[in-house]
């Protein structure tokens, strides 16, 4: 049995961050900006929603929500709605009671039982968003357009919405003003580079997702908002790249690393790697075999090669073995695959363990302790043991109780289960919504601080939102 002490930073930092969402005194007077509005047809004395920032904010930034003009201790239900680019609807609702003065500040007033969440949760109406379509995960496909968040206030706590008292819209954007989005089609590289404002050079990061394929850009552009030059890299199922993931050639990733190392706006002498899930073990492979890697962050990654044969020059690393008989199916038909993979410390499967002791970089493992995709904590601990056994620096391991597999940038709602492309059926990812949200907030800061430290030699210049 393995054990790692969990960081207490997450919850302590989350409480500090919560305090920053409170209005300083009474909520500000109503303005007629797009972010604040009473329900159509209501008088100017009607309840109104107040948001800060008022009309637009970055997706990883907190949003302060308050309602003014309610009756003393009036019971209301707040609901948020958001549609992704495919038109799928996500919603969350919470029941509240206004104060004696008719004010409702979500940073100070706890949600009552009966909604999507309860307790003090200033951003609960965002992180509790759930799809109306089963097994659907919220992702951002076009980072150049914002998500449009609809907020509504209804009378009472009924099962069905009561009278509409107020409504507002708010844009949750992904690109900060001045950040440049540059499609990259050089040689075999299929990627998008995000560059912060200014002439640079900037600390460089190569960003990889997992078995979903395609070219997700939202994490890369959110990181670029904080001063990094970030290359979101596709590696299969995109344009003319291979459609499947049977074999992976590391030379493709070497080409992308060299592109970053040679870019005039990327600060040398090395770059960082950031990978989630399958992208995590690809980052370990890159750090182990390629030059120019200074810092590597894995989010619920594996230290064994998973899912495809890996080739680099005359080296071949087979994928870790698996046994589908170890899949557990719940009554609702959702698969739990946490025990499917073999142990990379035993028998022939030892060949799949990536020789990360060859790496010349520092490692940070971000671990969700309720990850049901695979045993992320076990992988992190065994990676640490192997590094230290070869005289290498002990990696940083940050564990989050109650966090599942998809640890995303802050305020993405937790995805408890969705379709797994390799299994062809819905699988559970694990996690408890509020704890998962807190983990995402803290992990985002940990990742930025780690890259600032190792890529610039300076502490993070990004003001903490915690």
Entry keywords:
single chain; 466 residues; alpha/beta; 8-stranded mixed β-sheet; 6-stranded mixed β-sheet; 24 strands; disordered C terminus
In short:
The chain is an alpha/beta fold. Helices cover 18% and strands 27% of the residues.
Structural class: alpha/beta
Number of discrete helical segments: 7
CA radius of gyration: 23 Å
Q: What is the helix content?
A: 10-25%
Number of strands: 24
Arithmetic mean pLDDT: 91
How much strand? 25-35%
- Sketch the major β-sheet: 8 strands, mixed
Ordered list of secondary-structure elements with their pairings:
Layout: H1 9-19, E1 48-52, E2 56-58, E3 64-68, E4 75-83, E5 89-97, E6 104-105, H2 124-127, E7 130-131, E8 147-155, E9 164-173, E10 180-184, E11 191-195, E12 202-208, H3 218-224, E13 229-233, E14 247-249, H4 250-262, E15 266-276, H5 278-289, E16 293-299, E17 309-312, E18 315-317, E19 328-329, E20 335-336, E21 362-368, H6 376-389, E22 396-400, E23 417-420, E24 425-428, H7 433-456
Helix pairs in contact: 1-7
What does the model show?
The chain is α/β, with parallel strands linked by helices and 466 residues long. Helix content is 18%, strand content 27%. The chain is built from 7 helices and 24 strands. The strands form 6 sheets. Strands 10-11-13-12-15-16-21-22 form an 8-stranded mixed sheet, sandwiched between helices. A 6-stranded mixed sheet has the order 2-9-8-4-5-7. A 3-stranded antiparallel sheet has the order 1-3-6, with no helix packed on it. Helix 3 links the parallel strand 12 (202-208) and strand 13 (229-233). It is globular and about 75 Å long. Residues 1-17, 23-34, 40-44 and 461-466 have low confidence and may be disordered.
């Amino acid at each position: 049995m393995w054990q790692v002490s969990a960081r207490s930073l997450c919850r302590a930092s989350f409480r500090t961050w919560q305090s920053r969402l409170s209005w300083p005194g009474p909520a500000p007077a109503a303005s007629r900006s797009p972010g604040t509005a009473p329900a159509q047809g209501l008088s100017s004395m009607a309840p109104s929603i107040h948001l800060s920032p008022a009309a637009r904010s970055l997706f990883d930034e907190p949003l302060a929500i308050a309602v003014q003009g309610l009756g003393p201790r009036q019971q209301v239900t707040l609901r948020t709605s958001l549609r992704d680019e495919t038109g799928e609807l996500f919603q969350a609702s919470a029941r509240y009671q206004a104060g004696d003065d008719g004010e409702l500040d979500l940073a100070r007033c706890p949600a009552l039982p009966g909604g999507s969440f309860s307790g003090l949760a200033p951003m609960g109406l965002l992180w509790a968003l759930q799809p109306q379509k089963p097994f659907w995960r919220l992702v951002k496909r076009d980072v150049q357009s914002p998500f449009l968040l609809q907020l509504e206030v209804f009378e009472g706590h009924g099962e069905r919405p009561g009278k509409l008292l107020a409504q507002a819209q708010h844009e949750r954007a992904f690109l900060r003003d001045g950040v440049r989005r540059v499609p990259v089609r050089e040689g075999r590289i299929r990627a998008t580079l995000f560059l912060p404002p200014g002439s640079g050079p900037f600390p460089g990061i190569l960003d990889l997702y997992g078995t979903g394929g395609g070219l997700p850009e939202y994490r890369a552009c959110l990181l670029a908002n904080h001063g990094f030059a970030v290359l979101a890299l596709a590696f299969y199922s995109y344009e003319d790249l291979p459609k499947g993931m049977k074999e992976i050639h590391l030379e493709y990733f070497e080409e992308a690393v060299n592109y970053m190392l040679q870019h005039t706006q990327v600060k040398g002498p090395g770059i960082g790697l950031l990978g989630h899930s399958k992208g995590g073990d690809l980052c370990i492979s890159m750090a182990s075999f390629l030059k120019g890697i200074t810092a590597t962050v894995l989010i619920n990654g594996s230290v064994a090669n998973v899912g495809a044969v890996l080739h680099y020059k005359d080296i071949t690393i087979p994928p870790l073995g698996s046994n589908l008989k170890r899949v557990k199916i719940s009554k609702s038909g959702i698969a739990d695959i946490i025990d499917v993979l073999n142990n990379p410390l035993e028998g022939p499967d030892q060949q799949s363990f990536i020789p990360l002791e060859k790496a010349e970089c520092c490692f940070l493992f971000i671990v969700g302790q309720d990850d049901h995709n695979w045993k992320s904590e076990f992988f992190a601990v065994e990676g640490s043991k192997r590094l230290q056994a070869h005289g290498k620096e002990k990696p940083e391991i940050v564990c989050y109780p109650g966090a599942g597999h998809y640890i995303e940038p802050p305020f993405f709602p937790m995805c408890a289960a969705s379709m797994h492309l390799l299994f062809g059926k819905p699988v559970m990812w694990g996690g408890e919504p509020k704890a998962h949200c807190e983990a995402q907030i803290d992990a985002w800061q940990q990742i930025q601080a780690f890259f600032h430290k190792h890529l610039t030699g300076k502490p993070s210049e990004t003001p903490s939102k915690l």
